[in-house]
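Subject: Re: docking follow-up (pyridoxal-5'-phosphate)

Dear J.,

Thanks for your patience while I sorted out the input files. As discussed at Tuesday's group meeting, I've set up the holo structure prediction with pyridoxal-5'-phosphate included as the bound ligand rather than trying to dock it afterwards. The sequence and the ligand SMILES I used are pasted below, so you can double-check that they match what you have on your end before we go further.
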Amino acid sequence: MQQRKAAQKIDVMDVSAYNELNSKLNEKNVNLVAVSKTKPVADIEALYNTGQRIFGENKVQEMCDKYEQLPHDIAWHMIGHLQRNKVKYIVPFVSLIHSVDSVRLLKEIDKQAAKADRKVNCLLQIHIAEEDTKFGLDANELEELLTSDAFAKMKHVQICGLMGMATNTDDEGQVKREFAGLKALFDKIKAEHFANNAAFKELSMGMSGDYEQAIEAGSTMVRIGSLLFGARNYA
Ligand SMILES: *Cc1c(COP(=O)(O)O)cnc(C)c1O
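The structure tokens for the complex came back this morning:
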């Protein structure tokens, strides 16, 4: 019998789940945001070493700390609620902000991006879930934002699409309806406001528990944490 190599590299996490998921998503041309919130830098490095370059965080401080410690070809996505007074810390390096939910926030991103001499990619977060704990715009507020004078003046933000989170429920029919509703809104907004804008193409929907339904419904970008990194411990 062959002996195991003594000096085998010990991986801090099992990347087989990643490889399996990644090939499934590649087949469908869906981007993977590996949601690394609460997870140590070593876990991110393990996925980075297998080729993953997009990581998602939901806290400004944590994202800045990890940005400093890790290779700079990582694309950092802000997926959590963002306070206006913290925008300035991430604007110099953030790759995509998924969680823009007001014109005031967008205005601050535009202002800080001008200072940093950047154009910052953003998604507008839409409220599709039943729970009112989840942030986001409704269809009317979205329309208001896109037709506002303030938005028309912004030169340093690029709207790349929409993001949404479905209700956390076992009712698959409800989740499907919510994703389908967001896809329909995406198509309508694309046609009415971004028809000649190739940058508006991303629909960020789907997490560990519902990404398959999200892809069925037309997601182009899934945000997956626990399926890759294991359950989070907030203790
Ligand atoms: C934490 C988080 C995710 C990932 O959740 P999992 O269920 O662990 O895949 C996705 N999107 C947002 C906005 C999150 O905060």
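A couple of observations from a first look. Residues 93 and 154 are 19 Å apart (CA to CA). The chain is about 40% helix and 15% strand.

Let me know if you'd like me to rerun anything.

Best regards,
T.
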